[in-house]
Amino acid sequence: MKNEFHESVLVKKAIEALHIEKGSKYIDATLGNAGHTLEILNLGGMVLGIEIDPKMLEIAEGRLKTANKKDFKLVGGNFTEIDRIAKENGWYPVAGILFDLGVTNLHLKDLERGFSFGNSEAPLDMRMNPETQGVKGSDLLNVLREDQLRDLFEATMEPGAAKWISGRVMHSRMDKPIETVGDLLEISEGLKVGKPGLNEATLPFLAVRIAVNSELTNLEEVLPKAFDLIEKGGRLVVISFHSKEDVLVKNFFKEMTKVGAKQITFKPIMAEADEIGINRRARSAKMRVLEK
Ligand SMILES: C[S@@+](CC[C@H](N)C(=O)[O-])C[C@H]1O[C@@H](n2cnc3c(N)ncnc32)[C@H](O)[C@@H]1O
């Protein structure tokens, strides 16, 4: 089981925060491999799961079927359409909504999709849904102007570093178009950024992934829609993995306190050392909880 599915992060704490009640409706807006969804179902909650990536949706369907679960509906789509999806499925209002942002370990392990540096020959693709998204990571790096590239890289790094790497991209694509994971690895060589021990390519890859999948704008768009779907006393739980996301969540939650919502977490909840020991992805997870 450990390697077959995505290793879900902060499961116990997220489920506790959602206050699962038997027979109540929840939305898992980032279904992934249904790790969190399974726990909600095990406690008697009913789940509407939304997943953008058709491959992950299939894995989640298989996992829930094998576990003999009922009381759930799964929908393929972008969570920015959460309002339409919830209403079309009669899943409104709900007792809680969970966002566990980003990609799964399976995305990172898939050596053909360009999410990780494992295969330098792989196309620099990074689309979460290749069936509906037209623009790949390599396309962005080949067509954006230098100032647009700087904005793209500033999602994960300081302006100085973003300027440096944007210059490298411009230089590299004058020789030949940027096409592969290896091309971005080469461009990132010598980048001085991030915590000691962090691979120099980690932040450039993350920035390209965020841009390809509009991750920050999607999050900004969905938070108010999700809040609207929650019943009074219900909970919104968001697990994010980098600071720009966390700031969006933090500011949105603060704003919602002006309309009567209650922040359950003033500081984000993080994973304990034992979880980080088994799942490296947990080290950057930050969870915030809001009660409507
Ligand atoms: C960190 S994983 C979630 C893992 C899941 N909680 C579990 O336990 O298996 C995030 C998932 O959300 C999906 N995702 C990311 N952005 C999305 C979006 N805008 N709409 C719907 N799904 C999205 C990704 O494809 C990925 O499968």
From TrEMBL:
Keyword Thylakoid: no
UniProt cross-references to InterPro entries, sorted A to Z: RsmH, SAM-dep_MeTrfase_MraW_recog, SAM-dependent_MTases_sf
Ligand binding (S-adenosyl-L-methionine): A34, G35, H36, E51, F79, D100, H107
Reactions mediated catalytically: cytidine(1402) in 16S rRNA + S-adenosyl-L-methionine = N(4)-methylcytidine(1402) in 16S rRNA + S-adenosyl-L-homocysteine + H(+)
GO BP annotations listed: rRNA base methylation
Keyword tags: Cytoplasm, Methyltransferase, rRNA processing, S-adenosyl-L-methionine, Transferase
Regions annotated as coiled coil: none
Enzyme Commission identifier(s): 2.1.1.199
Top-rank taxon: Bacteria
Entry annotated with the keyword Transmembrane: no
One Pfam family hit: Methyltransf_5
Subcellular location: Cytoplasm
One GO cellular component term noted in the UniProt record for this chain: cytoplasm
Primary localisation category: cytoplasm
Molecular function as annotated in GO: rRNA (cytosine-N4-)-methyltransferase activity
Enzyme class: transferase
SUPFAM superfamilies in the record: Putative methyltransferase TM0872, insert domain, S-adenosyl-L-methionine-dependent methyltransferases
Family the entry assigns: Belongs to the methyltransferase superfamily. RsmH family.
Biological role stated in the UniProt entry: Specifically methylates the N4 position of cytidine in position 1402 (C1402) of 16S rRNA.
Protein name: Ribosomal RNA small subunit methyltransferase H
Annotated gene: rsmH
